[in-house]
Amino acid sequence: MKIEAVIPYEPSLYTVKAILILDNDGDRLFAKYYDDTYPSVKEQKAFEKNIFNKTHRTDSEIALLEGLTVVYKSSIDLYFYVIGSSYENEEKCRKASTAGEHGGAVLGCG
């Protein structure tokens, strides 16, 4: 008997679609997009405002917005976001988010 694994998506090394750091007004301090989900700066900033408006008043750390997995943390007046695909393991994104938060502290940002 042969058993085959069914993967609903194409495997990829690009598990993180974007990393964002926003200030307490939702303005971009840092943004790095790793694919063309939001190809223009205008689309990126609209996405960032949307994501900030839906997450800055909540205590949870994970959201599913616009078909993307969003893991986020806030630290005083900074918001760290790691965005992955909707099928992405949120634990991977959370680890990237934690690493980014510690990196912000090292850089004097948090």
TrEMBL record:
<dbReference type="Pfam" id="PF01217">
    <property type="entry name" value="Clat_adaptor_s"/>
</dbReference>
<keyword id="KW-0813">Transport</keyword>
<dbReference type="InterPro" id="IPR000804">
    <property type="entry name" value="Clathrin_sm-chain_CS"/>
</dbReference>
<dbReference type="InterPro" id="IPR022775">
    <property type="entry name" value="AP_mu_sigma_su"/>
</dbReference>
<keyword id="KW-0653">Protein transport</keyword>
<keyword id="KW-0963">Cytoplasm</keyword>
<feature type="domain" description="AP complex mu/sigma subunit">
    <location>
        <begin position="15"/>
        <end position="90"/>
    </location>
</feature>
<dbReference type="GO" id="GO:0030126">
    <property type="term" value="C:COPI vesicle coat"/>
</dbReference>
<keyword id="KW-0333">Golgi apparatus</keyword>
<dbReference type="InterPro" id="IPR011012">
    <property type="entry name" value="Longin-like_dom_sf"/>
</dbReference>
<dbReference type="InterPro" id="IPR039652">
    <property type="entry name" value="Coatomer_zeta"/>
</dbReference>
<comment type="function">
    <text>The coatomer is a cytosolic protein complex that binds to dilysine motifs and reversibly associates with Golgi non-clathrin-coated vesicles, which further mediate biosynthetic protein transport from the ER, via the Golgi up to the trans Golgi network. Coatomer complex is required for budding from Golgi membranes, and is essential for the retrograde Golgi-to-ER transport of dilysine-tagged proteins. The zeta subunit may be involved in regulating the coat assembly and, hence, the rate of biosynthetic protein transport due to its association-dissociation properties with the coatomer complex.</text>
</comment>
<dbReference type="GO" id="GO:0006891">
    <property type="term" value="P:intra-Golgi vesicle-mediated transport"/>
</dbReference>
<dbReference type="GO" id="GO:0000139">
    <property type="term" value="C:Golgi membrane"/>
</dbReference>
<dbReference type="GO" id="GO:0006890">
    <property type="term" value="P:retrograde vesicle-mediated transport, Golgi to endoplasmic reticulum"/>
</dbReference>
<comment type="subunit">
    <text>Oligomeric complex that consists of at least the alpha, beta, beta', gamma, delta, epsilon and zeta subunits.</text>
</comment>
<protein>
    <recommendedName>
        <fullName>Coatomer subunit zeta</fullName>
    </recommendedName>
</protein>
<keyword id="KW-0931">ER-Golgi transport</keyword>
<keyword id="KW-0472">Membrane</keyword>
<dbReference type="GO" id="GO:0006886">
    <property type="term" value="P:intracellular protein transport"/>
</dbReference>
<keyword id="KW-0968">Cytoplasmic vesicle</keyword>
<comment type="similarity">
    <text>Belongs to the adaptor complexes small subunit family.</text>
</comment>
